[in-house]
């Protein structure tokens, strides 16, 4: 799992987003369509924040560095290794 504290700090820089919002926005930025379980009304607010967030290529690289540090493979099956 990506370090939630670092991810949350990153989210604070993006519209006060929580770590799950950042993860959802990152997944969308990577071209995926995440399936989100909305079991609480507050989750809708987080999803709205996530779909309005944008990331620069440097920010995406930083998020992926968080994942690499946590030994998480973030590459989709369709992406070629570089």
Automatic annotation (TrEMBL):
Pfam families: Aldo_ket_red. InterPro entries: NADP_OxRdtase_dom. Residues 14-66 form the NADP-dependent oxidoreductase domain. This is Aldo/keto reductase.
């Amino acid at each position: 799992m990506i370090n939630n504290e670092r991810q949350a700090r990153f989210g604070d820089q993006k519209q006060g987003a929580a770590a799950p919002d950042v993860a959802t926005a990152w997944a969308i930025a990577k071209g995926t369509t995440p399936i989100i379980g909305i079991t609480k009304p507050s989750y809708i607010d987080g999803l709205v924040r996530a779909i309005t967030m944008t990331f620069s290529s440097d920010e995406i690289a930083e998020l992926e560095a968080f994942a690499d540090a946590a030994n998480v493979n973030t590459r989709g099956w369709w992406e070629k290794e570089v």
